[in-house]
Design goal:
The chain is of the alpha+beta class and about 250 residues long. The protein has one domain. The chain contains 7 helices and 15 strands. Strands 3, 8, 9, 10, 11, 12, 13, 14 and 15 form a 9-stranded mixed beta sheet that branches. The protein has a two-stranded antiparallel ribbon with strand order 1-2. A two-stranded antiparallel sheet has the order 4-5. The longest helix is centred in the last third of the chain and has 17 residues. The radius of gyration is 17 Å and the shape is globular.
């Protein structure tokens, strides 16, 4: 993927954090036009939910969904946009990647992120002891790796050490998921030259401003882009809560 470009503007709070609430940025992701970048996280899609259900059933509901879904996504054939679509940039929706079973870094990242978020729709996971990944536990960072445009997945999980922590997951890896192989604490991944520019959540986007470092909800320079339209009272309350946290952090 090519680099994203954003305007740097905003206010400075008491801790010198830049915080701006504004519409999520768009990107010319497909030939038909620009898309809001979080449009490609689609856990509510029926094909995504059906695949999440199928994969967990095939696993016998034994392993954490992150492990199960990663083992599936890593079997998807890596193909560049130019080779698959004949153009340098083409973001596929997760349901399209499921049909083609091939794609590049952002395609498999959107798919893995969507599958993880779809655990909220799987009733069998409730009370099972396995993780249900909520909206604020999964994000797709867009940025660069070793100087090249890249997308990957960050997950807040206790899978690896028993402690809840953000991990960078490399969904284009061929190996099985394991700590320090294709899963690293976010701060370590940044030292490996993963360079996030924009964190894409299901309902918000956040852009780091200034020095890139370990992402933290509190105490990190970032731009906070606005929520999806709609969502009712729950979405409004979530928006207000995050805005207050940003104002006081």
């Amino acid at each position: 993927m090519t680099a994203l470009k954003f305007k740097s503007a905003g206010k400075t709070d008491s801790l010198d954090n830049t915080v701006v609430v504004k519409p999520c940025p768009t990107y010319p992701a497909r030939p038909e036009g620009d898309y809001f970048v979080y449009s490609f996280l689609t856990p509510e899609n029926k094909e995504v939910i059906a695949m999440a259900q199928k994969l967990m059933e095939e696993n016998g509901w034994r392993d954490d969904p992150l492990m199960v879904f990663f083992n599936f996504v890593r079997t998807i054939k890596y193909v560049s946009d130019r080779k698959q679509h004949g153009i340098p940039e083409y973001w596929s929706f997760p349901c399209e990647t499921l049909k083609r079973l091939k794609g590049d870094c952002e395609d498999v990242s959107w798919l893995l992120g969507s599958l993880l978020l779809a655990t909220q729709y799987l009733d069998e996971l409730q009370g099972s002891g396995l993780n249900v990944y909520a909206d604020d536990m999964v994000r797709v960072p867009l940025g660069a790796f070793q100087g090249n445009g890249h997308a990957w997945v960050d997950v807040c999980t206790d899978l690896f050490t028993g402690d809840w922590e953000w991990y960078t997951i490399e969904p284009t890896a061929n190996d099985k998921l394991s700590l320090d192989s294709n899963a690293w604490p976010v701060d370590y991944a940044i030292r490996m030259d993963y360079q996030p520019e924009l964190y894409v959540y299901r309902e918000i986007c956040e852009q780091i401003v200034g020095n890139v470092g370990c992402y933290k909800r509190r105490g990190q320079h970032r731009l906070v882009y606005g929520f999806r339209g709609g969502g009712g009272l729950r979405a409004l309350l979530r928006k207000a809560a995050l805005f207050i946290l940003d104002a006081i952090s």
